[in-house]
Structures are given as C-alpha cells and as structure tokens.
Amino acid sequence: MTDVLGYRGTNVVITGAASGMGQAAARLLVDLGAKVYALDIAEISVPVAKAVAVDMRDGASIDAAVAELPQDIYALFNCAGVPAPPFAAADCVLINFVGLRYLTELLLPRMTDGGAIVSIASTAGMGWKPNLARVEEFLALDSSYATAHQWLEANAEAVPDGYGFSKQCIIVYTMSKARELAQRNIRINCIAPSPTESNFMAQLTGKGQIPKEAVALFLPSNGRYASGADMGNVLILLNSKLAGFVSGHNLPVDSGYCAEVYMGQRDDLLGIG
C-alpha cells in the first residue's frame, strides 16, 4: 500500500497516548508504520516503539522524558490535557498549555525538515479574540513553571476558567508560532474539538460536576458527542504530508457547531464571533 500520509518509518512523539484522542491517534500511527514514542502519566496500552512516563505539570519530568526520545523527530502530537473540574484552574493551564509549550520548545531543535506539530485546543477556547491581550501577556512570559505559577496566582480572579484559558493559549501560540517555523519548513496547527466521549467526560457528567444539560449547549445540531477516533483521524491528517501546505490554522472539528454560531443560527455562548 502506498504511504500517502508519509508516516512509515518516521519518528513521531505523542503525549496523552493512554486514552481518548491521543490513544486513538497513537493506535493509527502504529498501524501506519510510524515509530511512535508515547508520553503519558498513565499506563499506555498501545504497542508503541517506546512508552515514557511524564508529568506535564513538572518541567523536570518533561526534561527526563525528552532525554529518552530520538534526535530526529518528524511529527509531534500534543494530546495531553485535563478538564476543570476536577482539576484546579492553575493545574489546567500548567498541564494543557505550559507543559505543552515547554515540551514543544525542547523538541523543536530535533524536528526534521518538513516536520509538523499539532495540538488539541477546544471549542471552549474559540473565544480567544476578546481575551487576546491577557493571553498575549501570558505567552510573553518565559516558559518556566515558576513564572507561570506566579502569574496565575496574581491573576486568579481574571482567569477563573483555567480550561478555557489554556485552550485560548494553545490557539494563539499555534498561530503566532507559524511564521517562525515556516522559515524552517515546519508546520504547526491545532484542532478545536466539540464535546468528545471520554472517561473524563463520563465521570464529570455522571457525578454531576458538569450537568449534561450544560454540555448539550455546545453539541452540534446532530446532538452527537464526537469519538476519540473522530479527533485522532484529523490529528493524523493535519500532521501528514497530505496537509503539507496547511500551517498556523485552528481547525474546529465540531460537526458544524462553530459554523452555526458564525451564521447566527445559535447563541454565541463562548464569544466566538
């Protein structure tokens, strides 16, 4: 079979590979013949080339994980992430964005010509424009965890929604990084999923931490939750050679939810428009 996606024999790194979208993407990458280096704090069941334990809240843990990765990397999949609740706002930002950026910047010198990076944002981050000044203020900080902690403590009242803010940061980081990486022939994109089936989602709605009625407000008109594979497939496409001229893009993967908001067909609850 022709290797139309271009993964066969390449080294790829993926975080959050133990479950959900990351697990779905890791499984497909293995099937496509990639050498998959999978990072997660939980046990990884996919038969990858190497599984590495990492805590995305801890820079030292990420440093140790990077030491176990190859020197040439074709693609990076940033899939690790946590919701709020049950995680505190600060932890959401540290895991979902600070750790993501820290790892990405460490691996950039190892990215090969024509390589690609994709991250998971969320429709919850689509309202980044009204909050751009605060997001840019945070992105302008150095990448240390200590600095991020200090800023988050000082701005706790202004950033009550750590999950949404972390996803806004991913979107703005992706778009702002594209120009720099284009000069090295490296692409960077992210996706903005609508509510997706996962163990976390089942726990949150089952325990009433997030009412099902609240989640339903952000489902597409078909009323369907996405699957991990729905998102994993798009991640694979964006980092493949078939998307070789796509960069700096935040792609809503939501069965039309954002389109409905843009066209005034449903209320803009996230400040998207």
Give an account of the 3D structure.
This protein is of the alpha/beta class and 273 residues long. The protein has a single domain, classed as Rossmann fold, CATH 3.40.50. 40% of the residues lie in helices and 16% in strands. It contains ten helices and seven strands. It has a seven-stranded parallel sheet, sandwiched between helices. The longest helix is centred in the middle third of the chain and has 21 residues. The model has no long low-confidence stretch (mean pLDDT 94).
Blueprint (SSEs and pairs):
Layout: E1 11-15, H1 20-31, E2 35-40, E3 50-53, H2 59-66, E4 73-78, H3 89-107, E5 111-120, H4 132-139, H5 145-154, H6 162-182, E6 187-193, H7 199-206, H8 212-216, H9 228-238, E7 249-253, H10 257-262
Parallel strand pairs: 1-2, 1-4, 2-3, 4-5, 5-6, 6-7
Helix pairs in contact: 1-9, 2-3, 3-5, 3-6, 4-6
Query: Number of folding domains?
Result: 1
Instruction: State the helix count.
Output: 10
Query: Widest sheet: strand order?
Result: 3-2-1-4-5-6-7
In terms of DSSP E residues, the strand content is 15-25%
Radius of gyration: 18 Å
Q: What is the CATH superfamily?
A: NAD(P)-binding Rossmann-like Domain
- CATH fold group: Rossmann fold
The helix/strand series, from N terminus to C terminus, equals EHEEHEHEHHHEHHHEH
Low-confidence residue ranges: none
Structural classification: alpha/beta
As a percent range, the share of helical residues equals 25-40%
Distance between the termini: 43 Å
The CATH architecture term is: 3-Layer(aba) Sandwich
Largest sheet: 7 strands, parallel
The residue-averaged pLDDT reads 94
The outline comes out as globular
CATH class: Alpha Beta
Query: How many runs of DSSP E, i.e. beta strands?
Result: 7
